Amino acid sequence: MKSFKLLETRGGNAKIKKSQKDSEYKIASLSLYPDDVICPARNLAQCAKPCLKFSGLADVFKSVNQSRKLKTDLWHNDPAQFLERLRKEISAFERKCDRDGFKAAFRLNTISDIQYERYDIPQEFSNSLFFDYTKIAARLGNTPANYKLMFSYSAAPKYQKAVSRALKTNVPISAVFRGGNPKSFLNRPVVNGDLSDLQNVFSGAVILGLRLKGPKRIQMLQDALIVDNPDLIETGLAA
Known about the structure:
By secondary structure, the protein is α/β, with parallel strands linked by helices. 31% of the residues lie in helices and 18% in strands.
């Protein structure tokens, strides 16, 4: 098997870089290439088309998704080796953070939804913070204390049981808005979710408003994952 790193530790992801700026944490992230196995709720949520796998540098450089696919192939073909590598890289990053005077944080599902708590990853590294977005509502409230989750909203009809379950928790819920953030959504206040995911995970029962990103073909999509700002609709200012 070709040698390659699973974790990105230099803050190359724009959201990761923004989140760790002026923070006591340094963040290592893992980007896979989403499919029906590592994103098991994506068909219910109907989020495959506007998926972030097509945004940012991935829309410019083919090598970005090629690297993600290589890692994903390892997960599918040899999960034991994948987890062994991951544990070693997590340990190495923890040591580096300790030497540099920072706390270690990990976002292992930048565009996937693997239940790492089932593999005892956050449990084994209890001194570090783990955080992710998820579309699996059953995970909410069922992860270790050091593994913080945010739930991702979609208007897809078959996904509404999951949304209802998430709304019964104090977990932040993210929603992608076209036309800016409304003041409230789903009877929760909306805050700017684009500033820092480290802040987001401790926000409580709010809606994390995320700006619709990506190329024009994504911007123009009419999709269950994308919410047209209801404030603009009410005032007649929607495009």
